[in-house]
Write the structure tokens for this entry.
Amino acid sequence: MPLGVIALCRFCTQPGCSDGAGPTGLVQGADGNFYGTTYGGGAYGAGEVFKITPGGTLTTLYNFCMHTGCPDGAAPCAVLMQQATNGNL
């Protein structure tokens, strides 16, 4: 880990991890928490949207579907952005 970097959370690297695998990056929300996505893992193995508090508490906000044709997609691979006007991601 580079000098000056603090780990808030360590994601599992094994197949089938319920906490997500392969985080794509973090954005700090207006509420002070950090938000991101994983391209794998989660409840269904197709990635998730998560929140991490500055103290390191991880909360899954959404699990992507692993079935073909799911309307929400799967395996997100981009960093989230926060809309300035209302705080939504």
